[in-house]
Amino acid sequence: MKRLLQIEFQKLWLNKLSRFLILAYFFLLTSIALVAAIKFDIGPIKFYLAEQGIFNFPYIWHFNAFVASFFKLFLAIIIISMIANEYSNRTLKQNLIDGLSKKEFIYSKFLMVVLFSILSTVFVFLISLILGLVYSNYTEFGIIFSDLEFILAYFVKHIGFFSFCLFIGMLIKRSAFALGFLVIWNFIEWIIYGLIFWNTGKESTIPDTILSFFPFRAMSNLINEPISRLSAVKAVANQVGESLSYDYAVHWYEIVIVIIWTFLFIYGSYRLLLKRDL
Amino acid sequence: MSETILTIKNLNKNYGSLQAVNNLSFTIEKGNVYGILGPNGSGKSTTLGIVLNVVNKSSGEFSWFNNTISTHDALKRVGAIIEHPNFYPYMSAYDNLKLVCKIKGIPTTAIIEKLELVGLIDRKDSKFRAFSLGMKQRLAIASALLNDPEILILDEPTNGLDPQGIHQIRELITEIAAKGTTILLASHLLDEVEKVCSHAVILRNGVKIYEGRVDELIASKGYFELNTTKKSELLAFLNTHQAFGTIKEEEGKIVAILNEELSPEELSKILVEKGIFLSHLVKRKESLENQFLKLTKKQV
Questions:
Q1: How much is the pTM?
Q2: Domain B223-284 - what CATH class?
Q3: Rounded distance between C-alpha atoms, residue A134 and residue A261, angstroms
Q4: Could you confirm whether domain B4-217 is CATH 3.30.70.1170?
Q5: Chains A and B: how many Cβ contacts under 8 Å?
Q6: What is the ipTM of this complex?
Q7: What distance in Å separates the CA atoms of residue A56 and residue A51, rounded to the nearest whole number?
Q8: Are the Cβ atoms of B88 and A90 closer than 8 angstroms?
Protein backbone atom coordinates (compact mmCIF):
# COMPACT_ATOMS: atom_id res chain seq x y z
CA MET A 1 0.00 0.00 0.00
CA LYS A 2 2.85 2.35 0.84
CA ARG A 3 4.38 1.68 -2.58
CA LEU A 4 1.11 2.49 -4.37
CA LEU A 5 0.63 5.66 -2.32
CA GLN A 6 4.16 6.79 -3.16
CA ILE A 7 3.52 6.17 -6.86
CA GLU A 8 0.28 8.14 -6.86
CA PHE A 9 1.71 10.91 -4.75
CA GLN A 10 4.57 11.42 -7.20
CA LYS A 11 2.18 11.43 -10.15
CA LEU A 12 -0.02 14.09 -8.54
CA TRP A 13 2.42 16.29 -6.73
CA LEU A 14 4.77 16.83 -9.67
CA ASN A 15 1.86 17.97 -11.79
CA LYS A 16 1.51 21.73 -11.42
CA LEU A 17 -2.23 21.84 -12.05
CA SER A 18 -3.03 19.12 -9.50
CA ARG A 19 -0.74 20.71 -6.95
CA PHE A 20 -2.40 24.08 -7.44
CA LEU A 21 -5.91 22.61 -7.18
CA ILE A 22 -5.10 20.62 -4.05
CA LEU A 23 -3.64 23.70 -2.34
CA ALA A 24 -6.51 25.89 -3.54
CA TYR A 25 -9.02 23.37 -2.21
CA PHE A 26 -7.62 23.31 1.29
CA PHE A 27 -7.20 27.06 1.26
CA LEU A 28 -10.87 27.49 0.35
CA LEU A 29 -11.94 25.05 3.05
CA THR A 30 -10.10 27.19 5.54
CA SER A 31 -11.84 30.25 4.20
CA ILE A 32 -15.14 28.96 5.58
CA ALA A 33 -13.82 30.39 8.80
CA LEU A 34 -13.95 33.81 7.20
CA VAL A 35 -17.72 33.59 7.15
CA ALA A 36 -17.43 34.40 10.82
CA ALA A 37 -16.28 37.86 9.90
CA ILE A 38 -19.40 38.70 7.88
CA LYS A 39 -20.90 41.69 9.56
CA PHE A 40 -23.39 44.19 8.19
CA ASP A 41 -23.74 47.41 10.00
CA ILE A 42 -25.86 49.67 7.84
CA GLY A 43 -27.56 52.21 10.04
CA PRO A 44 -30.46 50.48 11.80
CA ILE A 45 -29.76 47.07 10.28
CA LYS A 46 -27.15 45.26 12.27
CA PHE A 47 -26.23 41.77 11.16
CA TYR A 48 -23.42 39.70 12.54
CA LEU A 49 -23.43 36.22 11.07
CA ALA A 50 -21.37 34.67 13.80
CA GLU A 51 -24.09 35.64 16.27
CA GLN A 52 -26.93 34.02 14.33
CA GLY A 53 -26.17 30.68 15.90
CA ILE A 54 -24.52 29.05 12.91
CA PHE A 55 -21.41 28.32 14.93
CA ASN A 56 -23.28 26.76 17.81
CA PHE A 57 -22.48 23.17 18.67
CA PRO A 58 -23.81 20.82 17.47
CA TYR A 59 -25.42 22.74 14.60
CA ILE A 60 -22.00 23.74 13.28
CA TRP A 61 -21.21 20.13 12.30
CA HIS A 62 -24.21 20.13 10.02
CA PHE A 63 -23.64 23.62 8.67
CA ASN A 64 -19.94 23.23 7.90
CA ALA A 65 -20.34 19.74 6.43
CA PHE A 66 -22.95 21.18 4.09
CA VAL A 67 -21.01 24.28 3.05
CA ALA A 68 -17.62 22.58 2.75
CA SER A 69 -18.91 19.95 0.36
CA PHE A 70 -19.47 22.63 -2.29
CA PHE A 71 -15.72 22.81 -2.78
CA LYS A 72 -15.40 19.14 -3.67
CA LEU A 73 -15.53 20.09 -7.34
CA PHE A 74 -11.85 21.05 -7.09
CA LEU A 75 -10.89 17.55 -6.09
CA ALA A 76 -13.30 16.12 -8.66
CA ILE A 77 -11.27 17.86 -11.37
CA ILE A 78 -8.08 16.37 -9.97
CA ILE A 79 -9.47 12.87 -9.79
CA ILE A 80 -10.97 12.96 -13.27
CA SER A 81 -7.81 14.40 -14.78
CA MET A 82 -5.55 11.96 -12.93
CA ILE A 83 -7.44 9.14 -14.66
CA ALA A 84 -7.89 10.81 -18.03
CA ASN A 85 -4.22 11.84 -18.20
CA GLU A 86 -3.14 8.23 -17.73
CA TYR A 87 -5.08 7.48 -20.88
CA SER A 88 -4.04 10.49 -22.94
CA ASN A 89 -0.34 10.14 -22.04
CA ARG A 90 -0.66 6.37 -22.55
CA THR A 91 1.07 6.00 -19.22
CA LEU A 92 -1.60 3.58 -18.06
CA LYS A 93 -0.35 1.22 -20.75
CA GLN A 94 3.24 1.82 -19.72
CA ASN A 95 2.45 1.29 -16.03
CA LEU A 96 0.97 -2.11 -16.84
CA ILE A 97 3.93 -3.01 -19.05
CA ASP A 98 6.29 -1.98 -16.25
CA GLY A 99 4.64 -4.50 -13.96
CA LEU A 100 1.72 -2.79 -12.22
CA SER A 101 -1.32 -5.08 -12.21
CA LYS A 102 -4.72 -3.79 -13.29
CA LYS A 103 -6.01 -4.40 -9.78
CA GLU A 104 -3.13 -2.39 -8.29
CA PHE A 105 -3.85 0.47 -10.70
CA ILE A 106 -7.49 0.79 -9.63
CA TYR A 107 -6.56 0.17 -6.01
CA SER A 108 -3.98 2.95 -6.07
CA LYS A 109 -6.51 5.39 -7.53
CA PHE A 110 -9.09 4.34 -4.95
CA LEU A 111 -6.51 4.88 -2.22
CA MET A 112 -6.21 8.49 -3.42
CA VAL A 113 -9.99 8.85 -3.29
CA VAL A 114 -10.00 7.60 0.29
CA LEU A 115 -7.01 9.74 1.20
CA PHE A 116 -8.60 12.92 -0.19
CA SER A 117 -11.82 12.11 1.64
CA ILE A 118 -10.02 11.53 4.92
CA LEU A 119 -7.95 14.69 4.59
CA SER A 120 -10.98 16.75 3.71
CA THR A 121 -13.03 15.28 6.56
CA VAL A 122 -10.29 15.83 9.11
CA PHE A 123 -9.86 19.37 7.85
CA VAL A 124 -13.55 20.18 8.15
CA PHE A 125 -13.69 18.55 11.56
CA LEU A 126 -10.81 20.65 12.87
CA ILE A 127 -12.07 23.93 11.40
CA SER A 128 -15.54 23.33 12.80
CA LEU A 129 -14.14 22.41 16.16
CA ILE A 130 -12.04 25.57 16.33
CA LEU A 131 -14.80 27.86 15.06
CA GLY A 132 -17.21 26.27 17.48
CA LEU A 133 -14.92 26.63 20.44
CA VAL A 134 -14.49 30.32 19.61
CA TYR A 135 -18.09 31.28 18.79
CA SER A 136 -20.43 28.64 20.18
CA ASN A 137 -22.79 29.53 23.02
CA TYR A 138 -22.60 25.99 24.31
CA THR A 139 -19.26 24.41 25.02
CA GLU A 140 -20.20 21.47 27.20
CA PHE A 141 -18.34 18.33 26.22
CA GLY A 142 -21.50 16.32 25.58
CA ILE A 143 -22.92 18.97 23.25
CA ILE A 144 -19.72 19.53 21.34
CA PHE A 145 -19.47 15.90 20.37
CA SER A 146 -23.11 15.27 19.60
CA ASP A 147 -24.45 15.11 16.03
CA LEU A 148 -21.07 13.97 14.76
CA GLU A 149 -22.89 11.74 12.25
CA PHE A 150 -22.76 14.73 9.91
CA ILE A 151 -19.00 14.38 9.76
CA LEU A 152 -19.37 10.66 9.04
CA ALA A 153 -21.93 11.50 6.35
CA TYR A 154 -19.48 14.06 4.91
CA PHE A 155 -16.80 11.37 4.67
CA VAL A 156 -19.10 8.81 3.00
CA LYS A 157 -20.50 11.45 0.65
CA HIS A 158 -17.01 12.42 -0.53
CA ILE A 159 -15.83 8.86 -1.02
CA GLY A 160 -18.98 8.21 -3.03
CA PHE A 161 -18.62 11.34 -5.14
CA PHE A 162 -14.92 10.85 -5.85
CA SER A 163 -15.50 7.20 -6.74
CA PHE A 164 -18.14 8.39 -9.18
CA CYS A 165 -15.54 10.76 -10.69
CA LEU A 166 -13.03 7.91 -10.89
CA PHE A 167 -15.54 5.74 -12.71
CA ILE A 168 -16.55 8.50 -15.12
CA GLY A 169 -12.86 9.15 -15.82
CA MET A 170 -12.25 5.48 -16.57
CA LEU A 171 -15.38 5.29 -18.71
CA ILE A 172 -14.88 8.45 -20.77
CA LYS A 173 -11.07 8.82 -20.72
CA ARG A 174 -11.14 12.57 -21.49
CA SER A 175 -11.15 15.16 -18.70
CA ALA A 176 -13.39 17.70 -20.35
CA PHE A 177 -16.00 15.22 -21.52
CA ALA A 178 -15.98 13.45 -18.17
CA LEU A 179 -16.58 16.71 -16.29
CA GLY A 180 -19.32 17.55 -18.77
CA PHE A 181 -20.88 14.17 -18.18
CA LEU A 182 -20.92 14.84 -14.45
CA VAL A 183 -23.01 17.97 -15.04
CA ILE A 184 -25.26 16.25 -17.55
CA TRP A 185 -25.84 13.36 -15.19
CA ASN A 186 -27.06 15.83 -12.60
CA PHE A 187 -29.59 17.12 -15.13
CA ILE A 188 -30.59 13.59 -16.06
CA GLU A 189 -31.47 12.85 -12.45
CA TRP A 190 -33.60 15.99 -12.35
CA ILE A 191 -35.32 15.10 -15.60
CA ILE A 192 -36.10 11.61 -14.29
CA TYR A 193 -37.44 13.21 -11.13
CA GLY A 194 -39.59 15.55 -13.18
CA LEU A 195 -40.98 12.74 -15.30
CA ILE A 196 -41.93 10.64 -12.28
CA PHE A 197 -43.33 13.68 -10.50
CA TRP A 198 -45.49 14.51 -13.49
CA ASN A 199 -47.00 11.04 -13.47
CA THR A 200 -47.60 10.64 -9.78
CA GLY A 201 -48.87 14.05 -8.79
CA LYS A 202 -47.90 16.52 -6.12
CA GLU A 203 -48.85 14.63 -2.99
CA SER A 204 -46.91 11.46 -3.76
CA THR A 205 -43.62 10.61 -2.10
CA ILE A 206 -42.74 8.15 -4.85
CA PRO A 207 -40.52 10.55 -6.90
CA ASP A 208 -38.35 11.31 -3.88
CA THR A 209 -38.17 7.67 -2.89
CA ILE A 210 -37.10 6.53 -6.35
CA LEU A 211 -34.64 9.36 -6.76
CA SER A 212 -33.00 8.60 -3.43
CA PHE A 213 -31.50 5.54 -5.09
CA PHE A 214 -29.76 7.60 -7.79
CA PRO A 215 -26.12 8.51 -7.08
CA PHE A 216 -26.31 12.30 -6.95
CA ARG A 217 -29.54 12.46 -4.99
CA ALA A 218 -28.34 9.74 -2.65
CA MET A 219 -25.21 11.77 -1.91
CA SER A 220 -27.05 15.03 -1.39
CA ASN A 221 -29.61 13.29 0.86
CA LEU A 222 -26.80 12.47 3.24
CA ILE A 223 -26.44 16.08 4.30
CA ASN A 224 -29.66 18.07 3.83
CA GLU A 225 -29.54 21.83 3.69
CA PRO A 226 -29.09 23.24 7.18
CA ILE A 227 -30.45 26.76 6.66
CA SER A 228 -34.05 25.98 7.62
CA ARG A 229 -32.84 24.77 11.00
CA LEU A 230 -31.67 28.23 11.99
CA SER A 231 -33.92 29.82 14.57
CA ALA A 232 -33.87 33.11 12.71
CA VAL A 233 -35.11 31.43 9.53
CA LYS A 234 -37.76 29.53 11.46
CA ALA A 235 -38.98 32.73 13.01
CA VAL A 236 -39.39 34.39 9.62
CA ALA A 237 -41.22 31.34 8.32
CA ASN A 238 -43.58 31.38 11.26
CA GLN A 239 -44.41 35.01 10.60
CA VAL A 240 -45.50 34.23 7.05
CA GLY A 241 -47.50 31.29 8.32
CA GLU A 242 -45.33 28.41 7.11
CA SER A 243 -43.99 25.84 9.47
CA LEU A 244 -40.64 24.45 8.39
CA SER A 245 -40.30 21.00 9.69
CA TYR A 246 -38.34 18.50 7.66
CA ASP A 247 -36.19 15.47 8.13
CA TYR A 248 -32.58 16.56 8.18
CA ALA A 249 -31.17 13.57 10.04
CA VAL A 250 -28.55 11.26 8.58
CA HIS A 251 -30.20 7.87 8.14
CA TRP A 252 -28.37 4.59 8.04
CA TYR A 253 -30.00 3.56 4.77
CA GLU A 254 -28.79 6.76 3.12
CA ILE A 255 -25.24 5.81 4.08
CA VAL A 256 -25.76 2.25 2.83
CA ILE A 257 -27.01 3.44 -0.57
CA VAL A 258 -23.93 5.61 -1.09
CA ILE A 259 -21.59 2.83 0.05
CA ILE A 260 -23.20 0.46 -2.43
CA TRP A 261 -22.74 3.03 -5.21
CA THR A 262 -19.10 3.46 -4.18
CA PHE A 263 -18.57 -0.28 -4.44
CA LEU A 264 -20.29 -0.39 -7.85
CA PHE A 265 -18.19 2.50 -9.18
CA ILE A 266 -14.88 1.01 -8.09
CA TYR A 267 -15.76 -2.50 -9.20
CA GLY A 268 -17.12 -1.09 -12.47
CA SER A 269 -13.85 0.78 -13.06
CA TYR A 270 -11.94 -2.44 -12.50
CA ARG A 271 -14.15 -4.40 -14.90
CA LEU A 272 -13.75 -1.66 -17.52
CA LEU A 273 -9.98 -1.83 -17.24
CA LEU A 274 -9.97 -5.63 -17.35
CA LYS A 275 -12.05 -5.77 -20.50
CA ARG A 276 -10.32 -3.00 -22.40
CA ASP A 277 -7.53 -3.41 -24.91
CA LEU A 278 -5.14 -0.54 -24.41
CA MET B 1 19.98 -26.83 -21.01
CA SER B 2 18.47 -23.58 -22.07
CA GLU B 3 16.02 -21.70 -19.95
CA THR B 4 12.60 -20.82 -21.32
CA ILE B 5 11.57 -17.23 -20.81
CA LEU B 6 8.30 -17.05 -22.67
CA THR B 7 6.02 -19.71 -24.09
CA ILE B 8 3.11 -18.87 -26.36
CA LYS B 9 0.65 -21.62 -27.15
CA ASN B 10 -2.23 -21.52 -29.64
CA LEU B 11 -2.77 -17.84 -29.05
CA ASN B 12 -5.73 -16.16 -30.78
CA LYS B 13 -6.97 -12.60 -30.86
CA ASN B 14 -10.06 -11.41 -32.68
CA TYR B 15 -11.09 -7.83 -33.20
CA GLY B 16 -14.67 -8.41 -34.23
CA SER B 17 -14.48 -10.48 -37.40
CA LEU B 18 -10.81 -9.67 -37.93
CA GLN B 19 -8.42 -12.28 -36.65
CA ALA B 20 -5.29 -10.38 -35.66
CA VAL B 21 -3.44 -13.36 -34.19
CA ASN B 22 -4.23 -16.84 -35.42
CA ASN B 23 -3.26 -19.94 -33.45
CA LEU B 24 0.23 -18.64 -32.75
CA SER B 25 2.79 -20.69 -30.84
CA PHE B 26 6.46 -20.10 -30.21
CA THR B 27 8.96 -20.09 -27.37
CA ILE B 28 11.66 -17.64 -26.35
CA GLU B 29 14.80 -19.17 -24.89
CA LYS B 30 17.28 -17.31 -22.75
CA GLY B 31 20.30 -15.77 -24.41
CA ASN B 32 19.00 -15.49 -27.98
CA VAL B 33 18.06 -12.42 -29.93
CA TYR B 34 14.69 -12.87 -31.57
CA GLY B 35 13.09 -10.91 -34.32
CA ILE B 36 9.38 -10.93 -34.94
CA LEU B 37 8.95 -10.03 -38.58
CA GLY B 38 5.90 -9.24 -40.51
CA PRO B 39 4.31 -6.61 -42.69
CA ASN B 40 2.25 -3.88 -41.05
CA GLY B 41 -0.86 -5.33 -39.49
CA SER B 42 0.45 -8.86 -39.28
CA GLY B 43 -0.20 -9.14 -35.56
CA LYS B 44 3.26 -8.36 -34.15
CA SER B 45 2.19 -5.58 -31.81
CA THR B 46 -0.98 -7.39 -30.83
CA THR B 47 1.05 -10.45 -29.82
CA LEU B 48 3.43 -8.32 -27.77
CA GLY B 49 0.47 -6.43 -26.27
CA ILE B 50 -1.04 -9.71 -25.11
CA VAL B 51 2.08 -11.00 -23.39
CA LEU B 52 2.62 -7.55 -21.86
CA ASN B 53 -0.78 -7.51 -20.18
CA VAL B 54 -2.31 -4.62 -22.14
CA VAL B 55 -4.33 -6.52 -24.73
CA ASN B 56 -6.74 -9.31 -23.83
CA LYS B 57 -6.30 -12.61 -25.64
CA SER B 58 -9.35 -14.25 -27.20
CA SER B 59 -8.10 -17.75 -26.50
CA GLY B 60 -4.91 -19.71 -26.05
CA GLU B 61 -2.18 -19.41 -23.47
CA PHE B 62 1.08 -17.74 -22.72
CA SER B 63 3.36 -18.15 -19.75
CA TRP B 64 6.37 -16.28 -18.47
CA PHE B 65 9.34 -18.05 -16.91
CA ASN B 66 7.67 -21.49 -17.06
CA ASN B 67 4.55 -20.20 -15.37
CA THR B 68 6.27 -19.74 -12.03
CA ILE B 69 4.87 -16.25 -11.37
CA SER B 70 1.90 -14.05 -12.31
CA THR B 71 2.11 -11.96 -15.46
CA HIS B 72 2.46 -8.60 -13.71
CA ASP B 73 5.24 -9.92 -11.48
CA ALA B 74 6.96 -11.42 -14.51
CA LEU B 75 6.79 -8.02 -16.19
CA LYS B 76 8.87 -6.57 -13.36
CA ARG B 77 11.71 -8.74 -14.70
CA VAL B 78 11.07 -7.63 -18.27
CA GLY B 79 12.01 -4.42 -20.01
CA ALA B 80 9.64 -3.40 -22.76
CA ILE B 81 9.18 -0.53 -25.18
CA ILE B 82 6.04 -0.43 -27.24
CA GLU B 83 5.80 1.90 -30.24
CA HIS B 84 5.81 5.36 -28.64
CA PRO B 85 7.79 6.17 -25.54
CA ASN B 86 5.07 6.76 -22.92
CA PHE B 87 6.04 8.94 -19.99
CA TYR B 88 4.58 11.70 -17.85
CA PRO B 89 5.25 14.88 -19.84
CA TYR B 90 5.39 17.10 -16.76
CA MET B 91 8.05 15.04 -15.01
CA SER B 92 11.78 15.21 -15.62
CA ALA B 93 13.67 12.29 -17.13
CA TYR B 94 14.97 11.42 -13.69
CA ASP B 95 11.56 11.55 -12.02
CA ASN B 96 10.01 9.42 -14.74
CA LEU B 97 12.61 6.74 -14.18
CA LYS B 98 12.13 7.02 -10.43
CA LEU B 99 8.45 6.24 -10.91
CA VAL B 100 9.31 3.17 -13.00
CA CYS B 101 11.63 2.01 -10.21
CA LYS B 102 8.78 2.32 -7.71
CA ILE B 103 6.44 0.36 -9.95
CA LYS B 104 9.00 -2.39 -10.43
CA GLY B 105 9.87 -2.31 -6.76
CA ILE B 106 13.60 -1.79 -7.29
CA PRO B 107 16.02 0.72 -5.75
CA THR B 108 16.61 3.97 -7.63
CA THR B 109 20.37 3.49 -7.71
CA ALA B 110 20.52 2.35 -11.34
CA ILE B 111 18.94 5.51 -12.76
CA ILE B 112 22.10 7.53 -13.22
CA GLU B 113 24.00 4.61 -14.75
CA LYS B 114 21.26 3.92 -17.31
CA LEU B 115 20.92 7.60 -18.19
CA GLU B 116 24.64 7.63 -18.86
CA LEU B 117 24.36 4.52 -21.02
CA VAL B 118 21.81 6.17 -23.33
CA GLY B 119 23.58 9.54 -23.25
CA LEU B 120 20.89 11.53 -21.47
CA ILE B 121 22.70 12.28 -18.26
CA ASP B 122 23.03 15.99 -19.12
CA ARG B 123 19.30 16.23 -19.63
CA LYS B 124 18.22 14.31 -16.56
CA ASP B 125 16.38 17.28 -15.07
CA SER B 126 14.67 18.37 -18.28
CA LYS B 127 10.97 17.75 -18.57
CA PHE B 128 10.01 14.81 -20.77
CA ARG B 129 7.81 17.02 -22.96
CA ALA B 130 10.86 19.02 -24.02
CA PHE B 131 12.58 15.95 -25.47
CA SER B 132 12.97 15.16 -29.17
CA LEU B 133 11.63 11.84 -30.40
CA GLY B 134 15.10 10.33 -30.47
CA MET B 135 15.71 11.39 -26.87
CA LYS B 136 12.33 10.05 -25.83
CA GLN B 137 13.15 6.73 -27.42
CA ARG B 138 16.51 6.61 -25.65
CA LEU B 139 14.84 7.43 -22.34
CA ALA B 140 12.45 4.55 -23.00
CA ILE B 141 15.43 2.24 -23.47
CA ALA B 142 16.99 3.49 -20.24
CA SER B 143 13.69 2.84 -18.51
CA ALA B 144 13.44 -0.67 -19.95
CA LEU B 145 16.97 -1.44 -18.73
CA LEU B 146 16.48 -0.15 -15.17
CA ASN B 147 15.88 -3.59 -13.69
CA ASP B 148 18.64 -5.27 -15.75
CA PRO B 149 15.86 -7.25 -17.40
CA GLU B 150 16.08 -10.90 -18.31
CA ILE B 151 14.44 -10.06 -21.59
CA LEU B 152 14.19 -6.78 -23.47
CA ILE B 153 11.16 -6.40 -25.71
CA LEU B 154 11.30 -3.76 -28.40
CA ASP B 155 8.45 -2.96 -30.75
CA GLU B 156 9.55 -0.96 -33.80
CA PRO B 157 12.17 0.91 -31.77
CA THR B 158 13.43 2.94 -34.72
CA ASN B 159 10.02 3.96 -36.04
CA GLY B 160 9.89 7.63 -36.93
CA LEU B 161 13.52 8.37 -36.08
CA ASP B 162 15.98 10.18 -38.34
CA PRO B 163 18.96 8.20 -39.71
CA GLN B 164 21.16 9.38 -36.87
CA GLY B 165 18.62 8.32 -34.29
CA ILE B 166 18.15 4.97 -35.99
CA HIS B 167 21.89 4.43 -35.91
CA GLN B 168 22.13 5.32 -32.21
CA ILE B 169 19.31 2.99 -31.24
CA ARG B 170 20.74 0.12 -33.28
CA GLU B 171 24.13 0.55 -31.70
CA LEU B 172 22.53 0.45 -28.29
CA ILE B 173 20.63 -2.72 -29.13
CA THR B 174 23.78 -4.39 -30.44
CA GLU B 175 25.62 -3.38 -27.27
CA ILE B 176 22.90 -4.78 -25.06
CA ALA B 177 22.70 -7.98 -27.07
CA ALA B 178 26.48 -8.39 -26.75
CA LYS B 179 26.07 -8.43 -22.96
CA GLY B 180 23.96 -11.57 -23.27
CA THR B 181 20.53 -10.06 -22.64
CA THR B 182 17.71 -11.89 -24.38
CA ILE B 183 16.02 -9.59 -26.85
CA LEU B 184 12.72 -9.79 -28.67
CA LEU B 185 12.59 -7.26 -31.46
CA ALA B 186 9.47 -6.68 -33.52
CA SER B 187 10.11 -4.92 -36.76
CA HIS B 188 9.19 -4.65 -40.39
CA LEU B 189 12.69 -3.39 -41.18
CA LEU B 190 14.43 -6.52 -42.37
CA ASP B 191 18.01 -5.37 -42.39
CA GLU B 192 17.47 -4.36 -38.76
CA VAL B 193 16.52 -7.93 -37.88
CA GLU B 194 19.21 -9.40 -40.14
CA LYS B 195 21.88 -7.35 -38.43
CA VAL B 196 20.88 -7.99 -34.85
CA CYS B 197 18.86 -11.18 -34.52
CA SER B 198 19.90 -14.81 -34.30
CA HIS B 199 16.35 -16.17 -34.46
CA ALA B 200 13.24 -15.04 -36.26
CA VAL B 201 9.51 -15.60 -36.16
CA ILE B 202 7.73 -14.46 -39.29
CA LEU B 203 4.06 -13.57 -39.15
CA ARG B 204 1.58 -12.89 -41.87
CA ASN B 205 -2.05 -12.01 -41.20
CA GLY B 206 -1.60 -13.30 -37.68
CA VAL B 207 -0.32 -16.68 -38.81
CA LYS B 208 3.22 -17.89 -38.11
CA ILE B 209 4.89 -18.82 -41.37
CA TYR B 210 8.43 -19.35 -40.15
CA GLU B 211 10.23 -19.93 -36.89
CA GLY B 212 13.91 -20.70 -36.63
CA ARG B 213 17.41 -19.38 -36.99
CA VAL B 214 17.96 -16.37 -39.19
CA ASP B 215 20.98 -17.91 -40.98
CA GLU B 216 18.95 -20.99 -41.87
CA LEU B 217 16.27 -18.75 -43.23
CA ILE B 218 18.77 -16.93 -45.41
CA ALA B 219 19.77 -20.13 -47.28
CA SER B 220 23.34 -19.64 -46.16
CA LYS B 221 25.11 -21.37 -49.06
CA GLY B 222 24.10 -18.64 -51.46
CA TYR B 223 23.59 -18.87 -55.23
CA PHE B 224 25.37 -18.14 -58.51
CA GLU B 225 24.24 -15.91 -61.31
CA LEU B 226 25.83 -17.13 -64.52
CA ASN B 227 25.78 -16.37 -68.23
CA THR B 228 27.56 -17.80 -71.24
CA THR B 229 27.11 -18.29 -74.95
CA LYS B 230 27.03 -22.07 -74.47
CA LYS B 231 23.87 -22.08 -72.38
CA SER B 232 22.70 -25.61 -73.00
CA GLU B 233 26.09 -27.09 -72.16
CA LEU B 234 26.25 -25.07 -68.97
CA LEU B 235 22.76 -26.16 -67.97
CA ALA B 236 23.63 -29.78 -68.61
CA PHE B 237 26.71 -29.45 -66.45
CA LEU B 238 24.91 -27.72 -63.60
CA ASN B 239 22.17 -30.34 -63.59
CA THR B 240 24.67 -33.11 -63.10
CA HIS B 241 26.88 -31.39 -60.51
CA GLN B 242 26.01 -32.39 -56.97
CA ALA B 243 26.68 -28.95 -55.42
CA PHE B 244 23.68 -27.38 -57.14
CA GLY B 245 20.03 -27.58 -56.23
CA THR B 246 17.43 -25.64 -58.10
CA ILE B 247 18.46 -24.16 -61.42
CA LYS B 248 16.39 -21.62 -63.27
CA GLU B 249 16.64 -18.84 -65.81
CA GLU B 250 15.83 -15.34 -64.73
CA GLU B 251 16.08 -12.26 -66.96
CA GLY B 252 18.38 -14.05 -69.39
CA LYS B 253 20.70 -15.27 -66.65
CA ILE B 254 21.05 -18.68 -65.17
CA VAL B 255 20.48 -18.78 -61.43
CA ALA B 256 21.87 -21.82 -59.67
CA ILE B 257 21.17 -22.26 -55.97
CA LEU B 258 23.86 -24.03 -53.99
CA ASN B 259 23.32 -27.04 -51.77
CA GLU B 260 26.98 -27.26 -50.81
CA GLU B 261 29.80 -24.79 -50.43
CA LEU B 262 31.40 -23.90 -53.74
CA SER B 263 33.63 -20.89 -54.34
CA PRO B 264 33.51 -18.86 -57.57
CA GLU B 265 37.17 -19.73 -58.23
CA GLU B 266 36.50 -23.44 -58.10
CA LEU B 267 33.43 -23.15 -60.30
CA SER B 268 35.19 -21.12 -63.00
CA LYS B 269 38.13 -23.50 -62.95
CA ILE B 270 35.89 -26.53 -63.51
CA LEU B 271 33.99 -24.75 -66.27
CA VAL B 272 37.15 -23.71 -68.08
CA GLU B 273 38.31 -27.34 -68.00
CA LYS B 274 35.01 -28.27 -69.64
CA GLY B 275 35.50 -25.59 -72.27
CA ILE B 276 32.67 -23.37 -71.01
CA PHE B 277 33.64 -19.72 -70.71
CA LEU B 278 31.46 -17.43 -68.65
CA SER B 279 30.43 -13.94 -69.61
CA HIS B 280 28.88 -13.34 -66.22
CA LEU B 281 29.67 -14.81 -62.81
CA VAL B 282 28.35 -13.49 -59.54
CA LYS B 283 27.98 -15.28 -56.23
CA ARG B 284 25.28 -13.85 -54.00
CA LYS B 285 23.82 -14.53 -50.62
CA GLU B 286 20.09 -14.58 -50.53
CA SER B 287 19.01 -11.52 -48.60
CA LEU B 288 16.52 -11.79 -45.80
CA GLU B 289 14.38 -9.38 -47.73
CA ASN B 290 14.07 -11.73 -50.72
CA GLN B 291 13.37 -14.63 -48.44
CA PHE B 292 10.83 -12.65 -46.48
CA LEU B 293 9.01 -11.44 -49.57
CA LYS B 294 8.94 -14.98 -50.88
CA LEU B 295 7.59 -16.36 -47.65
CA THR B 296 4.96 -13.70 -47.16
CA LYS B 297 3.82 -13.91 -50.77
CA LYS B 298 3.59 -17.68 -50.90
CA GLN B 299 0.72 -18.39 -48.60
CA VAL B 300 -1.89 -16.02 -49.87
A1: 0.85
A2: alpha beta
A3: 38
A4: no
A5: 81
A6: 0.86
A7: 9
A8: no
